[in-house]
Amino acid sequence: MKLEFKKSISNKIIYTLGVLFIFLFLLGYFLPIGIDKVKNLSYSQFFFSSYTVATQLGFLLFSFVIAYFINKEYSNKNILFYKLIGDNIFTFFYKKVAVLFFECLVFIILSITIISIIYSDFSHYLLLIILFSLVILQYILVVGTISMVSPNILISLGISIVYWIGSVILVAINKNIFGIVAPFEASNTMYRAIEKILNNESTFICPTEIINTVSFFVLLLIVNTIVLLLSRKRWLKIGM
User: Fold this and answer.
1) What is the mean pLDDT of the chain?
2) Residues 14 and 103: beta-carbon distance below 8 Å
3) Is the pTM for the entire model greater than 0.90?
4) No. of helices (H) and no. of strands (E), the chain
5) Any transmembrane segments, and where (predicted)?
6) How many domains does the chain have?
7) Comparing C-alpha atoms, which of 211, 17, 24 is closest to residue 128?
8) What would the mean pLDDT of 96-105 be, rounded to a whole number?
9) Where does the pLDDT of residue 104 fall: very low under 50, low under 70, confident under 90, or very high at 90 and above?
10) Which domain holds residue 47?
11) Residue 204 burial (C-beta neighbours within 10 Å; 0-12, 13-18, 19+)
12) Is the distance from CB of 80 to CB of 114 less than 8 angstroms?
């Protein structure tokens, strides 16, 4: 893990993530002011706007840095190095996922804490940390899994964008059937539930939404495991 943190620093991944989160929350602040002409942006409006940016533009914001961090090491000489230090395709992948998620979590906690201090409001503090963390974890796992399909970063980005657009279309067609494909999508029921909670119109997230979200991550982990298992032969071949 220490090696992956060093690689994140040397490859400027951690700094890029910091800039992306600053940009995300700045968009969350300025979009309601610029588009909706909101004069006094409230705590709930700011965070719901930022949550909207994270769910609607997250793939565009974070796909490249995630794919780059994984694809950069997914080459002949690097895989040979990882094999020599005892890593297999699973440890290689999940160490990178863990580092990316930890760094994102730190920036999420810092951002939400600072904004909550500014507003002097911590009413949805833990919920916001969990929500933003799950949204980002989704991107890390999806883009990361796609990056293991191909060592070419452009192909990984292309497939990621196709997945993102496809999932949005499927949820728009029928959220009851395809809602599990993109639980955080704006046209899905989870999005409206979060809006009501942040506006204090509701207290709890519906159990159905929680089940759908858990099911999504379970399904995602199953797909990820299958992809990694199928990639083992290529991992061994590339590292020779």
Assistant:
1) 88
2) yes
3) yes
4) 10, 0
5) 12-31, 51-70, 97-119, 125-146, 153-173, 210-230
6) 1
7) 24
8) 95
9) very high
10) 2-238
11) exposed
12) no
